[in-house]
Task: inverse folding
């Protein structure tokens, strides 16, 4: 079989992905094996592949491919999320371009447009994941609006309502005026922003006096219904029981007293706007104040805004503050840094708004989920562990979850209204069930389906994805089905820390509520992908590379290696395209090593295996086993980056740079069949380790080593097993490597050709093993190797530990010049040793410097002392 000189990732990747799909290697069915299950964090249905997806899904694919090799029944369930806010916003925007307003459509008409959009753009990201090599069970692909998943959500809502955990309440909520929907607390991002503090004068009724109130939002003055002072603030005791006029509006409002007011903040007087501030609403309820909502749903002012009606809130802020100034009501303005809540999805500034919404009580639900992660016998491990504190803080301070959204794209809330009263509704899975409940509740048997009106709102998208590990196996609708009982709980969840609360914590909550079990055993929290300036990658900054172009330029394997080499769990990845170049180089290195091996001609006469090959192969087997222990240990700790780096060094350094050099035949000669078979076996072991990380190149090489059947494909082969190793052998070989490096250094420094044989004499002070002398002779091109008791004259030398190694000169150098160079180097090294010794004799330095710094200085001193001994020995031999 002809082997291509260059590795072509485009041809290889398409060929083997099609092959894997054709033979259904990704698909899982219930059988007698132990399952290993991962559910994908479902990306938005209309999303496209970005660097975060690349990192997250590469990690998942590494885990699933390794599990498959280890004999588990590996099942990776893919799917997408309907993403209510994002998708509805895109559909609304497209309709506007067509001259159609959402308000002009019925719900059914709008949903038809939304489904058309989803069918047109949905699922693109899943196809893109295939380019990365993702080995998902595509036959199990799910969508959060699939009929069975939709029914799971409705069933859950009804169940929680019947348990008294879901309620409808008139509350202050977070309103996104761009998406025109309410948001949960977790969907609001608070950012420090530069604003202004406006000091506004309110005239006291019946007098020419005034008081001053400071506010960051002067546009809300139109909704003021009181001014509040602290009853213990002596500055304002004369105002008790009086009233003021709202500037410009001229509405008379009372001055109330409450200890809530901080006498140290602002002016000590607080304007109270119950409709637009949560704390003001509490004050308003306490003092029975009027509630005036001044905003339309899009955050323009309504009729209460007088001549500003229809204008945006920020336009009004600017214009109204100018009017206040012109009319003499603006006392002063100051710059002011304050936190502003913005929508996690649309980035719009949030408005507090009073609204009837549906809420889920969280206090009791979170208790098992807290214990599951933080208890003494925790069922779930977060990797890295540092996120436990974040998890604890959020869970212990959780508030009721606002689960209703003023959207049409999503699961419609299964509440049915039969009257005008606030309690005139029933909750049921179907309208037929609702009618029966309504008749029972009202006693009115004449009620008909046409008398019922279903709630217009949809449920929060996270209210469907919190069921994901259960609903993808139909575990909510049919909890006794064999697939759910086999695949659930899942094993590992890989996601970003930014959705630890949105999704991870909530899945844990629902898992315990409905199964009494954790939905997964481990949560691997990846870092965020940032650019070299530590900025989060985003389209707006233009710093996010085209993920598919990276794959095209460097190959999927190269990109996977580049991402993973610098991505420790929980730590942000500073992405640099050079990492992908490094990954591509690694793939090419493996390919060239394979080509070298395939290029060796096997000996036809069955000549015996050379001693060098016997020793080299014995060493590499033990080296492989020692690295395997490290790799498996790091996988257990979810340190995939460290595992890959261990494999990288094993293959690049130990296999390619050492083993192949030790076993390769002399130029023009054949290789014995035993050595060739052994090397190919070791290459195959390497490929088994490499496959989870570089699936395409490893499969290509595997299939080119020899002809394989579909049952022998690498993807379904077996992972290497630990069988132990001899540590003494590895230590001896490390010394051998240092000896060979010393010989090569002398050759390079003295320009002694590597084709020219040299002699090596050894003073073996440490009684170093002679097992690898044949390797030293081959790689050092040593003609004779002998042991001596004294330093030979006229020889170059180096040390390894306390052993001395001499290369007798054969007239290759000028002795006088070499002697002078050695003396100069000795003088410099003695000076260096003196400076280091002086530093270490300083008690203050030793006592105060970090332990590692002191250790480094001591190492420098020891190295200098050893070098001085070697130089003196060399000078003596040349003198």
Result:
């Amino acid at each position: 079989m002809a082997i291509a000189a260059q590795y072509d990732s485009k041809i290889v990747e398409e060929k083997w992905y099609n092959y894997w799909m054709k033979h259904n290697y990704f698909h899982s069915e219930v059988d007698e094996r132990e399952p290993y299950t991962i559910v994908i964090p479902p990306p938005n249905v209309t999303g496209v592949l970005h660097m975060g997806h690349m990192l997250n899904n590469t990690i998942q694919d590494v885990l699933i491919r390794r599990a498959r090799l280890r004999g588990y029944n590996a099942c990776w369930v893919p799917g997408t999320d309907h993403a209510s806010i994002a998708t509805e916003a895109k559909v609304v925007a497209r309709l506007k371009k067509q001259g159609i307003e959402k308000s002009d459509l019925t719900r059914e008409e709008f949903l038809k447009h939304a489904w058309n959009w989803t069918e047109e753009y949905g699922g693109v990201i899943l196809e893109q994941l295939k380019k990365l090599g993702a080995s998902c069970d595509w036959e199990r692909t799910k969508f959060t609006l699939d009929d069975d998943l939709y029914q799971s959500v409705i069933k859950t809502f009804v169940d929680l309502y019947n348990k008294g955990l879901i309620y409808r309440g008139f509350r202050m909520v977070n309103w996104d005026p761009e998406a025109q929907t309410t948001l949960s607390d977790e969907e609001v991002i608070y950012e420090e922003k530069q604003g202004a503090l406006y000091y506004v004068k309110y005239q006291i009724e019946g007098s020419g006096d005034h008081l001053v109130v400071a506010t960051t939002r002067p546009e809300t003055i139109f909704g003021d219904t009181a001014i509040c002072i602290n009853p213990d603030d002596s500055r304002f005791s004369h105002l008790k029981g009086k009233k003021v006029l709202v500037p410009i509006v001229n509405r008379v409002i009372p001055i109330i007293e409450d200890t809530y007011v901080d006498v140290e903040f602002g002016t000590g007087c607080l304007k109270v706007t119950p409709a637009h501030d949560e704390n003001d609403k509490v004050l308003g309820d306490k003092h029975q104040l009027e509630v005036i909502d001044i905003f339309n749903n899009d955050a323009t002012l309504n009729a209460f805004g007088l001549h500003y009606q229809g204008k945006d809130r920020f336009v009004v802020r600017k214009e109204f503050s100018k009017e206040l100034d012109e009319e003499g009501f603006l006392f002063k303005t100051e710059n002011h840094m304050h936190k502003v809540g913005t929508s996690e999805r649309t980035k719009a500034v949030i408005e507090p708004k009073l609204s009837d919404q549906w809420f889920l009580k969280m206090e009791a639900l979170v208790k098992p989920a807290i214990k599951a992660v933080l208890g003494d016998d925790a069922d779930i491990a977060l990797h890295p562990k540092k996120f436990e504190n974040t998890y604890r803080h959020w869970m212990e301070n959780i508030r009721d979850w606002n689960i209703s959204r003023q959207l049409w794209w999503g699961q419609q809330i299964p509440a049915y209204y039969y009257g005008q009263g606030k309690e005139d509704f029933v909750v049921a899975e179907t309208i037929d069930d609702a009618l029966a409940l309504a008749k029972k509740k009202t006693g009115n048997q004449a009620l008909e389906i046409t008398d019922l009106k279903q709630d217009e709102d949809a449920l929060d998208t996270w209210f469907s994805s919190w069921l994901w590990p259960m609903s993808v196996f139909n575990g909510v609708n049919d909890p006794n089905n064999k697939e759910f009982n086999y695949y659930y709980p899942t094993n590992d969840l890989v996601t970003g820390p930014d959705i630890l609360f949105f999704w991870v914590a909530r899945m844990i909550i629902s898992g315990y509520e409905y199964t009494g079990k954790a939905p997964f055993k481990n949560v691997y929290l990846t870092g965020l992908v940032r650019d070299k300036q530590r900025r989060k990658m985003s389209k707006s900054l233009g710093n996010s590379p085209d993920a598919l172009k990276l794959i095209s330029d460097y190959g999927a394997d190269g990109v996977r290696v580049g991402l993973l080499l610098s991505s420790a769990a929980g730590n942000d990845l500073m992405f640099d395209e050079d990492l992908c170049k490094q990954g591509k180089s690694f793939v090419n290195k493996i390919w060239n090593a394979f080509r070298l091996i395939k290029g060796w001609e096997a000996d036809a006469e069955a000549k015996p295996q050379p001693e060098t090959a016997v020793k080299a192969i014995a060493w590499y087997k033990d080296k492989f086993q020692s690295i395997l222990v490290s790799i498996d240990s790091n996988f257990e700790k979810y340190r995939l980056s460290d595992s890959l780096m261990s494999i990288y060094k094993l293959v690049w350094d130990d296999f390619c740079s050492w083993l192949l050099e030790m076993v390769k035949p002399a130029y023009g000669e054949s290789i014995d069949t035993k050595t060739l078979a052994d090397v190919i076996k070791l290459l195959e072991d390497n490929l088994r380790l490499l496959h989870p990380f570089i699936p395409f190149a490893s499969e290509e090489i595997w299939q080119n080593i020899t002809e394989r059947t579909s049952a022998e494909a690498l993807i379904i082969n077996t992972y290497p097993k630990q069988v132990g190793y001899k540590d003494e052998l590895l230590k001896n070989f490390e010394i051998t490597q240092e000896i060979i490096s010393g010989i090569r250094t002398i050759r390079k420094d003295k320009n002694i050709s590597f084709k020219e044989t040299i002699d090596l004499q050894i003073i073996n002070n440490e009684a170093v093993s002679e097992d690898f002398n044949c390797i030293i002779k081959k790689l050092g091109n040593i003609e004779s190797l002998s042991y001596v008791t004294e330093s030979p004259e006229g020889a170059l030398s180096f040390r390894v530990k306390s052993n001395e190694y001499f290369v007798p000169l054969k007239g290759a150098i000028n002795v006088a010049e070499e002697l002078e160079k050695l003396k100069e180097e000795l003088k410099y090294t003695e000076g260096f040793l003196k400076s280091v010794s002086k530093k270490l004799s300083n008690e203050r330095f030793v006592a105060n410097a970090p332990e590692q710094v002191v250790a480094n200085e001591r190492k420098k001193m020891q190295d200098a002392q050893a070098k001085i001994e070697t130089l003196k020995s060399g000078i003596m031999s040349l003198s």
Observations:
- DSSP finds 26 helices and 29 strands in the chain.
